Amino acid sequence: MDSSALDLLQSVFGYPSFRGQQQAIVEQLCAGGDALVLMPTGGGKSLCYQIPALLRQGTAIVVSPLIALMQDQVDALREAGVAAAYLNSSLGAEDQREVERQLLAGELNLLYVAPERLLTGRFLGLLERTEVALFAIDEAHCVSQWGHDFRPEYRELAILHQRFPQVPRIALTATADPRTRDEIVERLSLQQARQFVASFDRPNIGYRVGLRDNAKRQLTEFLQGHRGESGIVYCLSRKKVDDIAEWLAEIGVEALPYHAGLDATKRAANQKRFLREDGVVMVATVAFGMGIDKPDVRFVAHLDLPRSIEGYYQETGRGGRDGLPAEAWMIYGLSDVVTMSQMIAQSESADDRKRVERQKLESLLAYAEATDCRRQLLLGAFGETYPGPCGHCDNCVAPPKTWDATVPAQKALSAVYRSGQRFGSGHVIDILRGEETQRVLSLDHHRLSTFGIGAEMDEKQWRSVFRQLLAAGLLEADAEGYGTLRLTAASRAVLSGEKTVKLREDARPARGRRRDSKLIVAGGSLGIEAYEQSMWDALRALRTQLAKQHGVPPYVVFHDATLLAMLRALPANEDELATISGVGEAKLKRYGRDFLAVINAQE
Ligand code: ADP
Ligand code: ZN
Fold first, then answer.
1. Distances, alpha carbon 355 to alpha carbons 62, 142, 145, 466, 485, in Å
2. Cα 450 to Cα 124, 335, 410, 411, distances in angstroms
3. Dist. CA 41 → ligand 1 center (Å)
4. What pLDDT score does 479 carry?
5. Is 41 in the pocket of ligand 1 (CB under 6 A)?
6. Is the shortest distance between the CB of 565 and ligand 1 below 6 Å?
7. Residue 65's pLDDT is what?
8. Quick one: which ligand is closest to 209's CA?
9. Within a 13 Å sphere around the CA of 441, how many CA atoms are in the beta-carbon half?
10. Is the minimum distance from the CB of 318 to ligand 1 under 6 angstroms?
11. For the residues of 534-563, what is the DSSP string, one character each?
12. What's the gap in Å between 434 CA and the centre of ligand 1?
């Protein structure tokens, strides 16, 4: 390939080399072909169309579903000296006209637009009078009605191919499942596109899943390893979001809430602080995240089970986009399983949709309860074979103990069956343990043959068994949403003794180590050594100050990875600084002197 793509990568973006399939994708577009790109979050999708946008004649039109994302990308491109703009509802009439003028005058390398804007007759008319370099359709999975981000307007984007058949198109997504991929091809008429499918592994993310017993205490302990770092804490309900955010603020963590129940101004303000300040923790429902491409999110915590393994992977994938270490941490319990089943049952969805959702929940539960490498399991869910244990998830680091639970499972299943498959786990456990509760007595359940047959195990142990039976699909919660349990087609083989049941021993949640919750001690994902701390703080402070002056988020000035490289290399002059990954020509000129001054002053 002509060296100009590489030249641009180095001079504009400051990166020494292409990553993975980036170069092949750039070549495909520059040659006028279409491309479908499936790459995990943080894989480096943007450069795949930004570089062709600079190499091809005309303006690249980028369709993007979220306003926040557009602004970020345009800010970052401008910082790198690229002529980029966006058109969306956040602009006033005057500014819009100016952008349109620039488009027609051929002054823009890239123009970001919202899909509904792109599809207007007016805008398509403008495009007809413009030289279009390429169309990039970001977050292409929005065409899929099975996904959580379905956007009806995305389906109409096939019109681009009809109206501008000679303009190359690239569709990009971080959603990996084959069903979504097929839908993108079909809906966007991308049958001729070359497909670039990257591995979805995120090697810099470590995975950890535990049982919830006291969410606040567990979260505090977890945060002790992430002091001063940006992260996201996902909760299922708005109420829990408010509660956790408030409590974190009380114990001295910079935490903000985000959910659809907050008014739009408050939401936007919180999002902005998360993006613009270092070290803010966002406590949020799933409403938060799409299009947040903050690169330095160091952890993603789930205090409840997410809806599906795809959702989980997308949410956890928001950590560590910059390639530096990040942690995905989740705690959950039996009640989550029941709540999730209820939510699915009570949703307005059609039956086939509910079936899909239930399957998704089941694969997520299998993940949560897994005793083997979690990375292998996650990637397997996306049809990818990961060779061998990863060594970087909790199960690899400390393999869980398992036990033969065939007999307790039989007892549990028959107690469910004998009591008529009409009760939740609490009551069935009372029967098993022989508790003469009022409910048991009034229902005559103390006369059942299963009454008291499980007295040898305590309530907690039984809850563990029920949770895992549910997760394994050997029991199911009722579709009506009362939390009652019943047998499944798979239960029979266990009851008849044909199938044995192996369960994991629930690790006792670490107690004892309880510390003063106000005392969150440093740990840090980035491995900053004590002797480096003052230089690191100085670099970050300068970055924050410059970001404020330029009205952009700190990571738009330089990523953590770039600051870290400076910290380690301590460049003495502009030539040395220019060799640091992430320092392009425009930024060297703009910020070089300030950073060198800080480095030289400290040494
Ligand atoms: P995606 O859109 O796939 O989630 P981005 O395009 O935002 O990912 O890229 C993720 C991060 O990786 C960004 O910080 C980007 O600057 C960086 N990056 C992308 N390509 C390269 C490269 N070739 N070398 C170094 N860093 C890169
Ligand atoms: Zn592993």
1. 35, 21, 15, 22, 18
2. 71, 24, 11, 7
3. 9
4. 64
5. yes
6. no
7. 86
8. 2
9. 4
10. no
11. HHHHHHHHHHHHHHHHHTS-HHHH--HHHH
12. 59
How is residue 98 written in tokens? 């100016």
In this structure, the answer to whether residues 445 and 310 fall within a common structural domain is no
Number of domains in the chain: 4
Is the distance from CB of 19 to CB of 46 less than 8 angstroms? no
Helix/strand/coil for 362: helix
Instruction: From residue 235, give the alpha-carbon distance in Å to each of 219, 332, 354.
Output: 12, 11, 22
Given the CA of residue 581, which atom of ligand 1 is nearest to it? 25
Proportion of the chain in helix, strand, coil states, percent, rounded to 5: 50, 15, 40
Q: Report pLDDT for 558.
A: 94
From the CA of 17, give the closest atom in ligand 1: 23
Residues 6+ apart with CB under 8 A from 186: none
| Residue 157 dihedral angles phi and psi, to the nearest 5° | -70, -10
Q: How many CA atoms lie within 13 A of 351 on its CB side?
A: 2
> 390 and 407 share a domain?
no
| pLDDT (0 to 100) of residue 509 | 44
Which residues of the chain are under the pLDDT cut of 50? 1, 509-523
Kindly state whether residues 61 and 164 are assigned to the same domain.
Answer: yes
Closest residue to atom 19 of ligand 1, CA basis: 44
Residue 230 lies in a domain: yes
**Residue 591 belongs to domain with CATH number:** 1.10.150.80
d(CA 468, CA 40): 30
Ligand number nearest CA of 25 is 1
Hey, which bits of 17-76 come out as E strands?
35-38, 59-63
Residue 512 forms part of a structural domain: no
Residues 459 and 426 in one domain: yes
Looking up residue 182, the CATH number of its domain turns out to be 3.40.50.300
Residue 294 beta carbon below 6 angstroms from any ligand 1 atom: no
Q: Whose CA is nearest to atom 12 of ligand 1?
A: 44
23 lines ligand 1 (CB under 6 A): no
Q: Cα separations (Å) of 350 from 207, 284, 353, 354, 362?
A: 34, 28, 5, 6, 19
Please check whether residue 513 lies inside any domain of the structure.
no
Give the integer Cα–Cα distance in Å for 567 and 562.
9
- Which one, of 139, 133, 167, 140, lies nearest residue 51 by Cα? 133
> Which residue(s) pair with 171 in the sheet?
36, 137
Is the domain of 355 the same as that of 381?
A: yes
Q: How far is CA 335 from the centre of its chain?
A: 23
- Spatial distance between the Cα atoms of 476 and 470, rounded to a whole number of angstroms: 6
Residues 301 and 286 in one domain: yes
The pLDDT of residue 359 is 77
- Asked whether the beta carbons of 569 and 559 are under 8 A apart, the reply is no
- For 312, the 3-state DSSP assignment is helix
Q: Is the CB of 47 under 6 A from ligand 1?
A: yes
The verdict on the CB of residue 39 being under 6 Å from ligand 1 is yes
Please identify, among 450, 472, 504, the residue that sits at the C-terminal boundary of a domain. 504
Domain membership of residue 464 (yes or no) is yes
Whether residues 362 and 346 share a domain: the answer is yes
- Looking at residue 67, its pLDDT comes to 79
Residues 191 and 249 in one domain: no
Contact 340, 181 (CB under 8 A): no
Write down which residue in 397, 427, 454 finishes a domain: 397
CATH number, domain containing residue 463 = 1.10.10.10
The domain in which residue 111 lies consists of 3-197
